[in-house]
Amino acid sequence: MDDPLHRQDLKAARDGFVAGRDLHVHLAPERPTDASLKAEAASLLNPPLGRLPPQVHGRDALLQRLQHELDEPSARVHLLCGLGGVGKSTVALHVAAHARRQGRSVWWVYASNASTLVDSMLALAAGLGAGAGEVEAARAGRLDPSDVLWRQLEMRSGWLLVFDNADDVAALSVSGRLAGDGNGWLRISQSGTILITSRDGHAHHWGAHTLMHPLPWLSDEAGARILLDLAPRCGSSEDAQRLSSRVGGLPLALHHIGYYLSSPFAPEESFAELSDVFNERFSGVLATGVHRRELVTQTWGLSLQQLARQSIPQARSLLEVLARFAPGVPLPVRLLSQTVLAGVCKDEQYDGVRQGLEALHHVGLVEVRDTPGSTQQPAWSPGVVLHPLVAEVFRRCTDDIGTGCPTGDLTTSAAVKYAQEILGAADCGDPEDAGAWSRFGQLTSHFEELVTAVSSCGSEKFRTQALKQCRYLYLAGYYARARDLADRIITHWRYCLPEDHLDLQVAQNRLGAALTMLDENVRAKEIFEGILRNRVRTLEEGHRDVLTIKNNLAVAIKNLGEYVTARDLLREVTQQSVHTMGPADPFFLRVQDNLAKVLILMGEFEEAYTLSKDVLSRRQVLLGPQHPDTLGTAHRLGQALYGLERYKEAHANLLRSLRDCERVIGSQHPETMTVASDLARVIWDIGDHASAVSLLAQVTDRRHRLLGAKHPDYIQGKSLLTCWMNSVERNTDATA
Questions:
Q1: pLDDT of the residue at 291
Q2: 192 and 145 in a common domain
Q3: What value, to the nearest 5°, has the Cα angle with vertex 53 and ends 50 and 59?
């Protein structure tokens, strides 16, 4: 007979067996000691210390800060960001080596691929003590892999975890948690330090918990030390600095060059020799390496490929345009016209320009820097800068010169055309206004780079702005640079403009004006006479353009010492211009001022004084008291007073003129130095010989640096200074 109690006991026993079979007992793990954990993890994800150079130059402050972080973690994630090849991984390796020497656990993870990153991190978690079940659950998606790892990391202290080459921030996402969220792979911790290297410098991608450390290009001195470490017998520190400057202080390029020159089979034996032929050796020196990241000519293409995968393909075309500007020189951001560059971006158009430029900035292919201005008119700020090698590589890609990089999206002529359009649309102001000079100065190098970049002359707007640049350089006292730019313009434009084209004749006029300030007056006179012959064939004698050339011709004649001829020509121009323009016209006053200069040289001080006083009063009303032309006339008045031996008035006038010139046009301007030299003469004649010698010595030193040892102003000033010093010495000996 079936006993119900017996059946109940059997059922209870069966249920108990089943429950016992399914029971999982979780025992709290015993916390291991730091020593045992370090021993277990020592062989995991070792950093590639064999790639670390013996010395890391130019990063002392950054290394010191990161090494301090190891000792006192700030609960921040640290990001080394910048251009490919700038040395981010090298800095991280140096920190890793330092941590190893301190006995710390150091793990190095290659973060370029999401799937391999997860495998590496879970392998680290397992090596640090995570159970096989946890790891498998994380692989299967039942647990967050980052939680599995961080449970182990927080059980330890003093460690360093490096994520290298994290250029694709998306690869650091895990289980829907973004890198910038702070709850995935990248978390703040007091237990250890996380260090990342990435080309992506977009702060938004990394989150508020990340402290960014942008790596700049190396200084010439630091770059030279790298070259001397690798090729110590190849020349002086000065030669190494010049070569470092040539490659923009890029560590990757410097190491290529050092290894190249250290080879006994290198055709060049010194830094200087390689500098001379660097353009020809470019690909041979910089296109060697095992991986694309190691090739200067290809490493930046990886950044553009990454941007293309992020749906920003226009970044490449924008970079090809930017590469046509002067490398290493800031280009004002506000000049990067959306209208002009929209054509580069094709389907993306206006929004694509902003997105493309921002993307180039975030991956370090362009930098953004503040640019200096003046008190009268601030400069355009900020400016974008391309590393010189980035510019050269992408120019070669566009030109299809063998670099191993893909041919550019734009042709050379198209890229240059866009760049010239950007400069043609720039409104720097009036070159006659000293307050606008800071803006003109920001574009000079870019005009010098682009004016002869292709066979065409550029648009009318571009040519107009190029001629304004020549005028600015002349007025700002950069006479040699004004001469060289005008010379290049004339040589180039002659092939694409007719001989009588107005732009070509204006360029010749600009060249002649610069030559008169460089004591090349014979050539200047020939240029002005040639322009005058062309002008009088098509224009009336009293036309403003004809009178302008006559005025400039008179200046060259005056500088050649033919004072009477110059005076007579200026008086003729004065009579013609007063009838056609009137006595209040700026050009008429310029002619009058030039006439006063000639009269002073002829010793006709009374007439010069009367004329200068009248011109000064008119210019103060017409141009303002601080206009450079007004300051020049005030100087002329002081010279006339000195010639009349009215020393007290001359001293007061020239001292005031000197202070005004220093404030408005700067202490380095040649006109300012001339005022200072004339003031020194007055001070000498007053009898304060020591002060006169001191002031003239300062002027002579500046002239030597800015004008050169062959300039007549320097030669005359140096001779006078020697005479004065000898006189002072004789007087001292006589009274001893």
A1: 55
A2: yes
A3: 130
